Sequence to fold (242 residues):
Amino acid sequence: MARDTPSTLHQRIRTDIGERIRSGAWPPGHRIPFEHELMAQYGCSRMTVNKALSPLAERGLIIRQRGAGSFVCHPRVHSVVLDIPDIQAEISGRGAAYRYELLSRQLRRPDRVEMTKLDLTASSRVLALTCLHRSNERPFALEERVINLTAVPDAAEADFSRAPPGAWLLGTVAWTEAEHRISAVNVSRFTANLLGINASAACLALERRTWRGDDQITCVRLLFPGEVYDLMARFSPTPTGV
Fold:
């Protein structure tokens, strides 16, 4: 069989990786081989490997993280303006020191609102968590999260006193769909004190639900002091009929 030329080898590498992702052999969050491993496997240069991986990243099949490697992205059923943020990564990416506090943890039955949001029955069990994220010791976000233990039973045993639940879920559960709701709100005096702001100050509220297939995984409300967080999206017009 004729040996691949550099111009076709990158296409074969890209096809091989794409097929493994689409077949499920490499699930969401799976680390694909490092560049030097692909170079050895295919007998090619780093430039050829980069040429193979770049289109996969552009199409949203993989995410490339400097120093950590490339990982299979979590699939999306609908196009969304916002991705699911990893707060720790965002804070560290700004060059700030991250610190996390678990304020409360409850294993309990869902209330009426949670039953509606997570499509649960009164006999279901949930894990309710309240967490505070700090940037350079300054309050950055208050997280109020409920996890559906029917969909994610392992969450009941996870140690969220050390690791934030959002990062744990991103690394553990392959989500397929997410819904965001964004609003500007005023908060109670108690919440304002936790965030280190005046009770009259506006906060950005980001409410999110995530699914895995038909199962609703979690609902979370993140409250940010208005001056420390913003949302930005860059997008292009979608051709008519697509």
